[in-house]
Amino acid sequence: MADAVSKSGEENASRRRNEVQKKRQKVRALIEDVKNPPDHLKLVLVGPRWSGKSSAGNNILGKDAFDVDKSWYGPRTTQCEIGHGLFADRRLTVVDSPGWYYRHTLQDTSEMNKLEIENSLYMCPPGPHAVLLVIELGIAVTANYQRSVQDHMSLFGDDVWKHTIILFTMGDWLGVKTVEERIESEKELQWLVNKCENRYHVLNNLERNNREQVKVLLEKIDEMWAENDDPYYEVDQRRAAEMETLREDADKRAKKMKKIFERQSRVMKELFKGERQSLSDLRVVLLGQKGSGKSFAGNDILFMENFEGFRKDNEDQRVSVKHRGDFDGVKVTVVEAPGWYKDTETPDWLKHEVHRSVSMCDPGPHAFLLAVPVCKSFTEKDLRGFVELLKPFTRKCGHTAWFCSHGENGSVNTQ
Ligand SMILES: Nc1nc2c(ncn2[C@@H]2O[C@H](COP(=O)(O)OP(=O)(O)OP(=O)(O)O)[C@@H](O)[C@H]2O)c(=O)[nH]1
Ligand SMILES: [Mg+2]
User: Fold this and answer.
1) d(Cα 200, Cα 219) in Å, to the nearest integer?
2) Where is the AIG1-type G domain (predicted)?
């Protein structure tokens, strides 16, 4: 049975490869006889986080134009960046963009990230010749992954698919397999490739000297251009103006908030001037949704690896966990309460457990810390859920601070 399945997979792979080759030959003839591709190509890289967008941008441009995340904890691309270069005397403009978390629906992604992702197509007016949807070959393209891609591509409007090529990165992962065999191995991947009318290309970003792979990619872009009625994906100027206003408003609000924090901090310093704080024991409770980075934050606070970020048994953490440490002579107690799922009613067991987490900090916590991943949305509903959870401790709500984490990716950026 397994043999029969793999045989039909191979047959489908070979059929797809032949179809692509035939179509390419036809369009190339058209380019050679009639059409002259643009001598300045504008490309935009979009895709999930860590899929290799920045590396692909560098590979295409043949130089280090964009920062690459060398470790899981390293910096990610947080705003669109533009790079320029030449390929065989042809001008190239490449836009790199922030990725979305591959399990996130559009609703899960923060407004700030969505705006920045959408902005990528507005970086090279009047619009890019090609959108390169970057997908790494090593990852399983599940139904959730497909939905996440579809959701985030909808930020650009339906027409974008006509100008999109799937750019598979991590070509080295293929080994002896062909990309077509990889495509045929998952129906969600087939769906994505079919949505792009069989336009795909593989890059191995570890082989920057292999310029042939970039040459063929540019050929495929020219072929898509030749086939399309519209030479490029034209951006909507009205939306560009709207986005500008949204960004300016957000900027103003952020500056105002920063000023308030700075003033509060000055007032507090003034109030306690001369008074030496002699705190010898500090107790905090970590709260947050599942995957919000609480465990990583706990480990960061205690300089330990005691909190288990990813549970090996994949079981839900249902009980509060306490660890102790010492920071510059101060005894620090950190209790992590179980996380809750986004967009669900707060279950009773969780309310009890949060109660228990507080009693584990006898005689009481100095602070509740709420973990909020920067890339994830935090909606009115999320806020209501959190307030509900803290209701029994309302008297102490003035003790709540929030901090931004990178969620399931680990690192914490405390604010
Ligand atoms: N083996 C292998 N690793 C690659 C390849 N392309 C990228 N990487 C690695 O994958 C990791 C992520 O690459 P990036 O280029 O930073 O990915 P990104 O999509 O820009 O990531 P974000 O900006 O965080 O969204 C880095 O450690 C790269 O070195 C590839 O073709 N092969
Ligand atoms: Mg990047």
Assistant:
1) 12
2) 38-242
Beta strand 400-405 pairing with 412-413: antiparallel
Q: Which domain holds residue 193?
A: 2-235
The domain spanning residue 362 has which CATH number?
Answer: 3.40.50.300
Q: For residue range 217-261, what is the model confidence (pLDDT) as tens digits?
A: 999 999 999 999 999 999 999 999 999 999 999 999 999 999 998
The binding-site residues of ligand 1, defined as CB within 6 angstroms of any ligand atom, are: 49-55, 68-70, 76-77, 99, 169-172, 204-206
Q: Best mutation site among 44, 54, 79 for ligand 1, i.e. most ligand atoms within 8 A of its Cβ?
A: 54
Would you call 87 helix, strand, or coil by DSSP? strand
Kindly report the protein residue whose alpha carbon is nearest to atom 2 of ligand 1: 170
Nearest ligand (C-alpha, residue 49): 1
pLDDT tens, residue by residue, 322-334: 999 988 888 999 9
Query: 335 and 222, same structural domain?
Result: no
DSSP 276-301: PP---EEEEEEEEBTTSSHHHHHHHH
**Count of beta carbons in the 10 Å neighbourhood of residue 85:** 16
pLDDT tens-place string over residues 213-223: 999 999 999 99
What's the rounded Cα separation, in Å, for the pair 189 and 145? 9
